Amino acid sequence: MIEWWNSLSTMMRILWAITLSASLIFIIQSVMTFLGADSGSDFDINSDTDVPDGGMLDSADGPTPIDGDAVHGSGMGLLTFRNFVNFFLGFGWSAILLKDGIKSTTLLMLVSIIVGVVLVVLVMLLFKWLSGMQQSGNINVFKAAPGCEGKVYLKIPAARSGFGKVQITINDSVREYEAVTDGDALPTGASIRVVEVISADTLLVEPLESLII
Question: What is the extent of the structural domain holding 21?
Fold first, then answer.
């Protein structure tokens, strides 16, 4: 093993280190996901997206202006720790497996990057499909969700200035929804309670601590 490692070039050592690390993390994440313990394992990259002032967010009280400073829509799910792991998983294994067939280092890196991006997209589509399958069914979210408790999955900006995501338990089933809040920003992992259902896939939530007098 040591002889094999010493025989590798510096670039291949780096590739193997990245690939093995990403593979280990991917396995751990997959096990946690199937065990239902993955609600707090994804880290939201707080990346503000500039939008023109005057954008509107639908709510029960009518359209609400969205602050142009930051909008955390569903697309922000791209910038998560899970997707970085998936990218390096596809990138690393592609570079290792194709290094003998592609002699140009530049072309090898380009192909590996493309494979990494494709893997990220495929995994995102898979989770979106699974989420849709999970949320489909006979549950009326407008009646069942209010009062339910859960945790923040992706950070929720303050004062309805953008969207985050939460996972709540309805009828012993964990479901994921987009969410807004009227108060301060809610970080990933914070405990929340559903106050109101704004739409079939968007909830108004508040921190669970605020219920304690």
Answer: 2-211
As a whole number, mean pLDDT of residues 59-73 equals 40
Q: Which two tokens stand for residue 176?
A: 């994921």
Q: C-alpha dihedral over 111, 114, 115, 117, to 10 degrees?
A: 160
Closest CA to 74 of 44, 100, 50, 51: 44
Distance CA 157, CA 102 (A): 46
Q: What is the CATH number of the domain that holds 18?
A: 2.40.50.140
Per the CB < 8 A criterion, the answer to whether 190 and 153 are in contact is: no
| Whole-Å CA distances, 102 to 11, 99, 105, 107, 206 | 15, 5, 7, 7, 54
How far is residue 136's CA from residue 110's CA, in Å, rounded to a whole number? 39
CB contact set of 91 (below 8 Å; sequence gap of 6+): 18, 112, 113, 115, 116
Kindly state the helix (H) or strand (E) to which residue 86 belongs, with its residue range: helix 81-98
Calculate the alpha carbon distances from 147 to 29, 68, 136, 187, 196 in Å.
29, 30, 20, 20, 8
* Most confident option among 3-12, 28-37, 43-52, 195-204: 195-204
Please count the structural domains in the chain.
1
